Amino acid sequence: MQDTEKIKKIAEEFFKKMTFEGQVEVSTEENETVSLNLKIDDPSVLIGERGQTLADIQHLLKMIIRKQIESPIYIDVDIQNYKKKKSEYLKETARIIANEVSLSRKEKILDPMTPYERRIIHAELAERSDVITESMGEGDDRRVVIKPTL
After folding, report:
1. Are 35 and 97 in a shared domain?
2. Which of 39, 87, 130, 150 could form a disulfide with 23 if both were Cys (CB 3.0 to 4.6 A apart)?
3. Domain span holding position 37
4. Single pTM value for the model
5. What phi, psi does 108 have (nearest 5°)?
6. In terms of DSSP bridges, do strands 33-39 and 74-79 run parallel, antiparallel, or are they unpaired?
7. How far apart are CA 128 and CA 109, in angstroms?
8. Angle at 21 (CA atoms; ends 33, 88), nearest 5 degrees
9. Which of 80, 108, 136 is the last residue of a domain?
């Protein structure tokens, strides 16, 4: 993809203007997704509480890139592989809780999660025939419920 170098330069300039200099790694996937991973010394400031600052950064950077790149692409921004590690943790947690639900035949209600986190849980358990997932609640209190199948 020829746009990746341009996207990398845009991202580097974006973080430089925010006074965060680090190494921007760019990779592409088959589904037109361009992944940006910033490696810096202190990632916590850019990740924020429950990844909210990272989500805001991704939104801003996406808007900037889309104004400068013609082709339709999806941008996924990560900092120090935070989202990748979080995704792996959520998948493992989903499997463990689904196993508990399957054995106990009692539903479990998970803590509130962002839409991105809920999607990971739903996707991880979608192929299982022994449990089902659904979201409940509103706004910041929205959470996943894992239930045994009847």
Report:
1. no
2. 39
3. 3-80
4. 0.78
5. -125, 135
6. parallel
7. 18
8. 45
9. 80
Q: What residue has token string 């590690």?
A: 85
If 0-12 CB within 10 Å is exposed, 13-18 middle and 19+ buried, where does residue 12 land? middle
Q: Provide the pLDDT confidence category of residue 116 given band limits of 50, 70 and 90.
A: confident
Band of pLDDT at residue 2, cut at 50, 70 and 90: low
Nearest to 39 by CA among 13, 18, 20, 62: 20
Give yes or no for a contact between 15 and 55, defined as CB atoms under 8 angstroms apart.
no
Structural domains counted in the chain: 2
Give the model confidence (pLDDT) of 15-64 as tens digits: 999 888 889 999 887 777 889 999 998 888 899 988 889 999 999 999 99
Q: For 43-61, give one letter per residue: b (16+ CB within 10 A) or e.
A: beebbeeebeebbebbeeb
The Cα 23–Cα 11 span in angstroms is 10
pLDDT score for 1: 47
Token pair in block for residue 1: 């993809």
- Say what percent of the chain tops pLDDT 70: 98
